[in-house]
Write a structure and sequence with these properties.
about 230 residues; single chain; mainly alpha
Length: about 230
Amino acid sequence: MKSATASVARKLPAEERRAAIVKAVRQVFAEKGFDGTTTRELAVAAGVSEALLFKHFPNKEALYSAMQLACCNSNDDQIERLKALEPSASTLALLVHVFVSKVLAARAPDDERSIHCRLMLRSVLGAGEFARMFMQGLPTHLNRWMQACLEVAIADGDAHDGPIAPDLAAWFAHHLTMMISIYTLPAERVMDYGVPQPAIIEQVVWFALRGLGMKEEAIRRYYNPRALALLEG
């Protein structure tokens, strides 16, 4: 009697099967890296034979490239919807909160964001190809949107026109959040901040908005984490 996994794999159309394989192997690549992963391990993770794996991907390099491309082409629907809002200090506060909340949300080791974070770490420790590719996608669009909001906030008097260029300020806020996520990535965290996760998120948002140049009175006016938590719940 054939396994259910093999049956499902056999019935999938070619494109769906390729997509399923790409999705299934991400965690293996994230945990072991490209060089430390065997094609047998990849086939097991995908629930297919090595022969079927090679039917869709001629070698491990092709599968790894397809996995990278799939990760880099994924979008965040919630952040995309925020682009319908007019650039402003209010939109900036909301955008930073949504981004920080998503990146720092509690997650399991096999969660999509945990896997992606590990892939990024392995990339920057190596040649950095995947990390560079990914940063040119959603992070760059997010940076431009935050920059546009910050420029309007400065013009409206809600933010300081300081010495830090708006585009760099947006990148620094992004990188700060990503680095904190790395310290909290393992099940036993590298850094215990001593406060509940919602409090960490709120504190990071405040720190990021201040770093972006928003005035404290503007942050208090536009950033209400409790109200946002109710909406998210």
